[in-house]
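Q: I'm building a small set of examples for a reading group on sequence design. Run inverse folding on the following structure and report the sequence directly after it, with nothing in between.
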């Protein structure tokens, strides 16, 4: 504003106030793909960040795991602009309560995760025994596990009236399934299976003995 010269009498002065741009600021919300992961289960996490200021800004974005600095990046936002920025996928190695945090030039958000102990993955091996046409009931089916380069008997069961059998809640590993059907006049070679989590189907088509 320049100098103002006052004269005798009334002096009217119009003042136009220019708005002052508010200081830079950010809205920050931290997100996680899974709040209850198991130990070593990989998850994603991100921050939705909005520039609340009236000028472009390049804040420093700091990511934290359990209070320790995990990563640092910078990113330029235009006024009013929102971006979803992802941190690197990660996991936790121990069960219990853990925290993830983000700081955008001092504006922070934090999320708490409840990390569970790893659940033992279990498998089921099941199938049907037939003579290529008809189901065969009351056939003994045996399950062996592969230990130290040797097949070791583990469980047995019998087929039901429709020729079905099932072994449930067994660990994920390599097995051999075979039928003890000589007494019923049938034969078939055993079958090896690398059991995975869930259902593993192993059917048998028995051949009549000569």
């Amino acid at each position: 504003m320049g100098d103002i010269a006052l004269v005798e009498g009334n002096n009217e002065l119009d003042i136009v106030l220019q708005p002052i741009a508010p200081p830079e600021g950010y809205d920050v919300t931290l997100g996680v793909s899974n709040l209850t992961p198991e130990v070593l289960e990989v998850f994603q996490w991100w921050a939705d960040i909005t520039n609340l200021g009236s000028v472009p800004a390049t804040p420093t974005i700091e990511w934290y795991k359990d209070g320790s600095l995990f990563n640092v990046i910078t990113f330029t936002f235009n006024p009013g602009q929102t971006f979803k920025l992802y941190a690197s996928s990660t996991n936790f190695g121990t069960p219990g309560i853990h925290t993830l945090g983000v700081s955008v030039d001092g504006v922070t958000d934090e999320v708490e995760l409840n990390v569970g102990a790893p659940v033992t993955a279990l498998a089921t091996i099941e199938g049907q025994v037939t003579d290529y046409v008809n189901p065969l009931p009351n056939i003994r089916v045996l399950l062996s596990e592969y230990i130290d380069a040797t097949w070791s008997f583990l469980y047995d069961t019998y087929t039901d009236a429709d020729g079905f059998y099932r072994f449930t809640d067994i660990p994920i590993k390599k097995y051999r399934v075979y039928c003890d059907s000589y007494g019923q006049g049938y034969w078939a070679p055993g079958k090896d299976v690398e059991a995975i989590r869930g259902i593993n189907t192993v059917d048998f088509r028995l051949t009549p003995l000569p």
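The chain has a mean pLDDT of 88.
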